[in-house]
Every structure is written in C-alpha cells, then in structure tokens.
C-alpha cells in the first residue's frame, strides 16, 4: 500500500528493538521497515549470524535507511541491554516462570508510560528458528506474547516486530494527554545495575556451594534472577540489597546465629522456591 | 517465533481476504500465512498476475496449506464480492468521498459483530504497487486505514493483511489484554512473613556490627524496612530472599571474595542508599 509522504514528519523515537542472533539479512531489513512504518528507529543486533552491515538487510528495508544506518551491533545480549531501564521479552512458547505475561496492547501501554516518564525501554526478539533461551528471557522484566491461532502460532520475526511497533504507535494515539503513571522519586535501575546484583549474589552463593547439584545450577540461577528482576528495583533499592549482601558476605559473625522463628522455614521455602518451577 | 501446536484447534473462520490483482506469488503466500496465524482461512484472488496455483505462494505460506488450497480465483472484483454482505476497502491514501473511514480496531469490531450476526464479510487489499482504484474502493461499504508514520507509510500487502487479521483475532477475545498463557500464580505474603524477613536480615547484619554508630540504628532499620516492604513481595520471593541470606550468613566462603566490577560501588551505594532518605 502506498501513501508515504516524505514531506511529513519522520517519527523516530520509542523502545529499542533488540534482535538476538538474527540469521537472515532480509529479516533484519523487514524488521527495520516495520519499525519505520510505526515510528521506531533504534535497532540493536546481538551477533547477527551473517555479520553487519548487510546489503540484503538494506534492500529488504525498502528505504528505512535511518534505521539500518543507526543499527548498533553487540557481542552479548547483556551488552545490548545495559543502558535500558525496562525490557520486554517476546515469546510464543509458554514459559514456566514468575515473569508477568502481557498482551501486545498492555505491553505497548506500559512502554508508552515509561517512555513518557523518561525511561529507556526495549523489546527483545529471538532467533528465527527457536526464539529466546530461558536465560535470555530471564534478563527481561516482563514477557509479551501474541494472541495467535493455537494450531498455527508461528510468527516470523518481522511480523512480531510489526505487531509490537503497530501497538506502540497506537498507544501514542489513544490518549495524547496521558501523563506518566507514576512520578518516580527514585531513579529506575539500569540493566547494568541489575546484572551487577545478579553477579554479586550469585558469586556469594556459589562461593558457599549453594548451587548444588551442579547440573541444577542453571535452573536455580534462572529462578533467582526471575525473583530479583521481576520488581524492576530502583537504583537505591539495588544499592541497599548489595550493601546487605556485601556486609553479610564479607564480615564474620561476632555472635552465634540464633534460632529465629521462621528461619528454617525460610530455608525450606528457598529450596521449594527453586524447585517449584523446574 | 515457534510455538505452533498442531494438536490444538485450527481456527478457520471470519472475513474473506480479497487480494485485487496481486503481483507476486511470495506475497500471496505471506498473506496466507498471516491469515492462518490469526484464524482466517478464506482467501479470494482477483486475476493474480502470475496465475494460480503458484508454487511460490505455497512455499512462502510456510504450511498454511489449508488457506492456499482453499483459495478461489475470480476474473473481476465484482465477482469476488457478490456473495458478501459487508466489505471493507483498505487504503493508505486519503480518499475524498462519503465512505466512513475506520481504524483497524473499529473495523475488526464491526466485522466481528456482523460475523456473529451471521453476515458474510470481506476485506479488500490492493495491488502491491498502487493499491485500489477509486472505482474499486467504491464497491466497499467502509474504508479502513492504518495508523502509520506519516513519513514512512508504505505497508506491504502481507503486513496490511497481518494487522487486520491480528485485530480480527483480538476482537474475538472478551478481554483484549488476555494472553494465551500466564505467569505462575503466587500468593501475596502475609505481614508475618515480611516481619520474618526483617528480623532475619537485621539480625544477620547486627551480628556483624552493620548498624553503626548505635544511635543511627533505628533510622537505618527504618530505611532498610522501607526498601524491603515497598514492593509487597510474594511468599515465594520472600522465601528465596531468606534462602539467600541464610546461605550467605550460615556458611563460610570456600574461596576468597573476588573484586567484582561494581561490587564496591554497591557497597558505597548501600551507604548513600541508607543516607539518601535520612
């Protein structure tokens, strides 16, 4: 369908679109085009299989050059997320976990509210063939999934980006007068700060043989990260948590541990907590 | 994105998708795939340029064979519309006329109402290059157009069909915010469990002389509890936190503490974190 009017304002703002190990340049190009159609411009590529830049991507983008030219490449997903405050992971598969699962409409509304509130946001999309790993999903704040025909649920990556970009644009039109959903007196943490909390706690636990048996460690780490990330802690909360962990980790007790009511149940709870979604 | 489950119900009902003089078989195939993704099945082709059937269409449809096999070919648009009760024409260009112009959401709601009422409906899409003629649009009851970036408004035909099919599927869900699956239900914690977390962490810190100088302890405890309580943790989250604290508190390190990047800043942060809201 035609209708482009290059005289008119080029909208280029909003969440970053993060493609994890995209395989085909054509798909990256179609993603760029879909983004441009609905006013998104920031494309982040995590180790694209066929390298970057890609002429196939540029031609498939049918003139969405501002998106192609502005694309950034990262070696790891963590690097691609560090400066963001709030991130969605897209998935078609059911995940057993604790992250809230949102529809595209709800996700777009949340992204718009955070955008208006000055936060940096992103939406992660997985590989063409098999999407995102659980470890990758664990790095997101929430999950977004699409209402599809159960017997024919496979969306290609460009279609998935198109739908999220379309909902993003709609979310800006439905209520122009929308104000931030909350005036944050505390700055939301960046993903880098969240990853720092992960590493810090995991190291302190690992140093004590907490992750046992070894083959269960990845699952236990997933569960721990799910709990630590689902609340999108503020900078101040993360620094308080880290101060607590650091103090207990670094300094020895000066008196024996008491038998606090609920202490052991807490311990049990931790175990069952880790098992509950294996 | 994967997630197709062929065991599950194949939804195949709703408006007919009518493509007027489609040029590329690949596009017809991608249209069929988009329809199948969102439960549509009736495809009507008005004199496809490269003829029909088309192997290119079948392969681009990635297994939406029920749509490809059921496609009907017509010589004229009039023939393709004869048995329908209500038809939308899609266009990106502004048309001067008396036909109501609707958004995809409104159009999908209208189509759903008529479907439930037993009417036969359809959505017309124009040629890849230049869309529908005014004469063709004149055959429709209403116009539907997409909210796009004014400076980058060109949607390809498969994208346009995808968006309308997606809105059609959403219109059939009682709750637009509904998702196919949900995160695990978690019980909110009781105050007793929250207090247990307070005591547990405070004791572990106190045993290490964390609350120093003594006269500052009440304020430091206040700040700590403020952070620990403002998120209303679930039972499961509290037990995970307690498991973490308990493990670090109770068991000694088996290896020295590394200098984690951000670890000390975490420490600093903790101090300033506690001071920041004194």
Automatic annotation (TrEMBL), chains A, B:
Question: What is the annotated localization of this protein?
Answer: Cytoplasm
Give the encoding gene's name. Answer: trmJ
Q: Which SUPFAM superfamilies match?
A: alpha/beta knot (SSF75217)
Q: How does it assemble?
A: Homodimer.
The family database entries (CDD domains) matched by this protein are listed as: SpoU-like_TrmJ
User: Family, per the entry?
Assistant: Belongs to the class IV-like SAM-binding methyltransferase superfamily. RNA methyltransferase TrmH family.
Query: Which organism does this record belong to?
Result: Neorhizobium lilium
Residue stretches making up the tRNA/rRNA methyltransferase SpoU type domain: 16-166
Q: Report the main location listed first in the record.
A: cytoplasm
Q: What is this protein called?
A: tRNA (cytidine/uridine-2'-O-)-methyltransferase TrmJ
| NCBIfam families to which the protein is assigned, alphabetical | rRNA_methyl_1
Q: Which domain of life is it from?
A: Bacteria
One BP term from GO:
tRNA nucleoside ribose methylation
Reaction catalysed by this enzyme: uridine(32) in tRNA + S-adenosyl-L-methionine = 2'-O-methyluridine(32) in tRNA + S-adenosyl-L-homocysteine + H(+); cytidine(32) in tRNA + S-adenosyl-L-methionine = 2'-O-methylcytidine(32) in tRNA + S-adenosyl-L-homocysteine + H(+)
Enzyme class per UniProt = transferase
Please give the residue ranges the record annotates as the region Disordered: 254-278
């Amino acid at each position: 369908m035609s209708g482009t009017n290059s005289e008119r304002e080029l909208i280029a703002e909003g969440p970053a679109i993060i493609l994890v190990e995209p395989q085909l340049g054509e798909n990256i190009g179609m993603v760029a085009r879909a983004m441009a159609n609905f006013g998104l411009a920031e494309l982040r590529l995590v180790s694209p299989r066929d390298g970057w830049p890609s002429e196939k991507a540029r031609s498939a983008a049918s003139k969405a050059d501002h998106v192609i030219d502005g694309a950034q490449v990262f070696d790891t997903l963590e690097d691609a997320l560090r400066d963001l405050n709030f991130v969605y992971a897209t998935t078609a598969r059911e995940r057993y976990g604790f992250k809230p699962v949102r529809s595209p409409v709800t996700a777009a509304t949340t992204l718009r509210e955070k955008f208006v509130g000055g936060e940096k946001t992103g939406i992660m999309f997985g590989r063409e063939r098999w999407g995102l790993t659980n470890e990758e999903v664990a790095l997101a704040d929430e999950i977004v999934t699409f209402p599809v025909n159960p017997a024919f649920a496979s969306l290609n990556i460009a279609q998935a980006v198109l739908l999220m970009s379309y909902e993003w644009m709609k979310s800006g039109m439905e209520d122009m007068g929308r104000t931030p959903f909350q005036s944050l007196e505390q700055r939301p943490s960046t993903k880098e700060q969240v990853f720092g909390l992960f590493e810090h706690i995991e190291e302190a636990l690992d140093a004590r043989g907490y992750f046992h048996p070894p083959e269960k460690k990845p699952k236990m780490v997933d569960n721990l990260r799910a709990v630590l990330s689902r609340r999108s802690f503020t900078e101040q909360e993360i620094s308080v948590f880290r101060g607590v962990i650091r103090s207990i980790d670094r300094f020895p007790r000066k008196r024996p541990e008491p038998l606090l009511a609920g202490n052991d149940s807490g311990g049990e709870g931790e175990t069952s907590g880790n098992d509950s979604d294996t």
